[in-house]
Structures are given as C-alpha cells and as structure tokens.
Specification:
Bound molecules: 2-phosphoglycolic acid
CATH class: Alpha Beta
Strand order of the largest sheet: 3-2-1-8-7-6-5-4
Oligomer: single chain
Radius of gyration: 17 Å
Strand content: 5-15%
C-alpha cells in the first residue's frame, strides 16, 4: 500500500529537515511505501535527506514540454535532476486554481511517463457534480483518454479525491468511498486496466484505517495529516495488519 503526503505550498527547508530527522524513527509496516511531495524548491534537499530512510520524494506537478519559456513550471528532466522518480499530476488544486484541464493533465502525464517518472494521477468530482448525480460522468471524462493510452502502465497510480473533501475536514463516508472506488475499478476493468487506486480528501489518523480496509483502497493521498512526522507515523500505524 501507499501513504503519499502532498505537502502543497507548506514547509521551509528548516521544517523539512525536522520532518526527515524525526522520520528516521518511522516504523513502516511491511509492504507500505511512504512518499512525500514537497514544493519544487525543496526537492533536491528532500531527496538528499531521504537517503537511507524509507521515504520516497515525488514532485507535485510536471510540465508537458521538455524545456522552454514556461515561467513557474518544472520539467520532467528537472524533477529527475533533483533526484525524484515520481510526481503527482492533475491535483484538484491545479485544476481549480490554475486552470488545468483534462487535456493539460493528460499531456503532463504523457511527458512524465516518457521520462519514466512514476505518476500519481488525481481525479475527483466537485460538490455540485455529486449533488447533480454527475460523479461518474465527470470521472469518466477525466479518465477516458489516460486509460486508453496507459492501461497497461504499472507506473501510474490513480488517486480518487472528491474535491469537496479536500482540506475541508469533510471526509467522504465509507459508503461513498466504497461505491466510487468500486465504480472506478469496474470502469478500469472494462478498459483492461489494473491501476491501483488511492483515496484522498481529509484523510486523518482517525479515519484512515477504516478507509484503507476497503478492498479497492490501496492507500491514501494525504495533505494536512501528512505534514507532521507524528501524524504521518499515525497514518502508517493505520496500515499495520491490513
Ligand atoms: P487533505 O488534502 O488531506 O488536506 O484534505 C488531500 C490532498 O489535497 O491531496
């Protein structure tokens, strides 16, 4: 299973060092991967500090061009150059606040995979979509192109994150997570695709065990609760014996 911490625009180098100092004591359950995704400014340092620990360091996004005049963006080659072997793509905050579309997310995925970066690709519906009964249609729109091209690519992991549950403290109910993960699984199966699916959206130590126990939930993409080492360990503890 995977516990992936999306650190968004949090942490300075001092805070990063403190996290990695404490992470030396992490007790990681067997077969669990720990990933953190810090800001681009911290990627090199995080990769250096992660050496000899059980933590992998991913980027938060990756541009579709190899290089060029794209101010504020990071290329796959630059991510690799910082020592990272993976990246998030399509996070809802990118889609919501930075006008990323299904098309740009697809292009970013193509570029990342071309450079052999592992990808955690995020999908999820907004509250209005769910209220209007459009969750599945929205997910299908977000998935259809990427499934076609990357169906047999084991270096793509999906993260289902209902947008209304991200950073809001509102977690989707276990039934909602189960039903939506089941729908995604059957959609993937119809398309001969066996990606693993993470859940994200207000995952906390007090709800993660129940969510991660669902057969279709392969772990979590976690924002707030991944920032402090103690809380990260508490998330890992939820996966013991699963
Ligand atoms: P959250 O964020 O756990 O703080 O809700 C999740 C995410 O944005 O991936």
């Amino acid at each position: 299973m995977i516990v992936a911490g999306n650190w968004k625009m949090f942490k300075t180098s001092k805070e990063l060092k403190e996290f990695f100092r404490l992470s030396k004591e992490f007790k990681v359950p067997t077969n669990v991967r720990c990933i953190v995704a810090p800001s681009p400014t911290l990627l090199t340092l995080a990769n250096q500090l992660s050496e000899g620990t059980s933590i992998e360091v991913f980027a938060q996004n990756c541009h579709w061009e190899e290089q060029g005049a794209f101010t504020g963006e990071t290329s796959a080659a630059q991510i690799l150059d910082c020592g990272s072997k993976g990246t998030l793509i399509g996070h809802s905050e990118r889609r919501q606040y930075f006008a990323e579309s299904n098309e740009t997310c697809f292009k970013r995925l193509q570029a990342a995979r071309k450079a052999d970066l592992e990808v955690i690709f995020c999908v999820g519906e907004q509250l209005k979509d769910r209220e209007q009964g459009k969750t599945e249609a929205v997910l299908e729109e977000q998935l259809k192109d990427i499934v076609k091209e990357f169906r047999s690519d084991s270096k793509v992991t999906l993260a289902y994150e209902p947008v209304w549950a991200i950073g809001t403290g509102v977690t989707a109910t276990v039934e909602q997570v189960r039903d939506t993960h089941n729908w995604i699984r059957s959609y993937l199966e119809k398309n001969d695709c066996a990606w693993k699916i993470l859940y994200g959206g207000s995952v906390k130590p007090n709800n993660f065990k129940e969510l991660a126990s669902l057969p279709e939930v392969f772990g979590g993409l976690v924002g707030g609760a991944s920032l402090e080492a103690a809380s990260f360990q508490a998330l890992l503890d939820c996966l013991t014996d699963l």
